[in-house]
Write a structure and sequence with these properties.
By secondary structure, the protein is of the alpha+beta class. The chain has a single domain (46-191), classed as Nuclear Transport Factor 2, Chain: A. 47% of the residues lie in helices and 24% in strands. It has 6 helices and 5 strands, in the order ααααααβββββ. Strands 1, 2, 3, 4 and 5 form a 5-stranded antiparallel beta sheet that branches. Helix 3 (63-79) packs antiparallel against helix 4. The longest helix is centred in the N-terminal third of the chain and has 39 residues, at 3-41. The chain is globular and about 45 Å long. The chain starts with a helix and ends in a 12-residue tail after the last strand.
């Protein structure tokens, strides 16, 4: 082989190595960027998971699921450490579970509800209170009805609140109503004496 041919062959081999190296670097960078993107977009903490929920397009299908999510929000907002901005964003998410009639009252306006939640959170922190577990009654305990021609259901719930060495059981009856989009929304609730008779699902 002539010297010119050898030079061409060597140059060709070098180009192949450079091309292979460039491809390897490209795939490495792409893989690294993908891993970093997953780390940034995949929620890890309960706060992040709740904030990441798209309740506009993936709303809970049953009133039981709505109430379980309601308690998840409350447990997180009262128990977990977070910034004021995160607290407000969580409350905005929680309000999507409420019936329009419930939100229309002055007492449940954004400002009043935010102020009420903050006071409750401060009281929890001051007295070292935490929502330990909650239970949501299943279909066998639900009572169905209608209000203004829209289907409603009442479901018993309970929560165990820990305050230092003390344990406090809270029992409440929630009413949910279907809205115009066929979604179950929380219309209101009231305290009850006991949770007797409910088919419970602890969380």
């Amino acid at each position: 082989m002539s010297k010119t041919g050898k030079k061409i062959l060597i140059a060709f081999i070098l180009m192949l190595f450079l091309a292979a190296g460039a491809v390897a670097v490209y795939y490495y960078i792409s893989s690294t960027d993908g891993d970093n993107a997953n780390e940034k977009t995949e929620p890890g903490t309960e706060v992040e998971k709740l904030l990441a929920k798209d309740l506009d397009t993936k709303y809970p299908e049953t009133p039981v699921e709505v109430l379980k999510l309601y308690w998840r929000f409350n447990k997180c907002m009262y128990n977990d450490k977070m910034s004021d901005r995160e607290f407000e964003e969580l409350l905005k998410q929680l309000r999507k579970l409420y019936d329009e009639e419930f939100l229309a009252t002055e007492e449940n306006s954004w400002d009043n509800m935010l102020d009420s939640f903050k006071k409750d959170r401060d009281e929890y922190m001051k007295n070292e209170k935490k929502i330990s577990i909650y239970t949501v009654g299943q279909g066998s305990s639900a009572i169905s009805g209608k209000i203004d021609g829209k289907e409603t259901v009442s479901i018993n719930c309970s929560a165990l609140v820990k305050q230092k060495a003390e344990r406090i059981n809270v029992y409440e009856e929630f009413m949910c109503r279907r809205d115009d989009n066929n979604n179950w929304k929380i219309l209101g609730w009231k305290k009850t004496d006991t949770g007797d008779g409910q088919d419970e699902d602890a969380k």
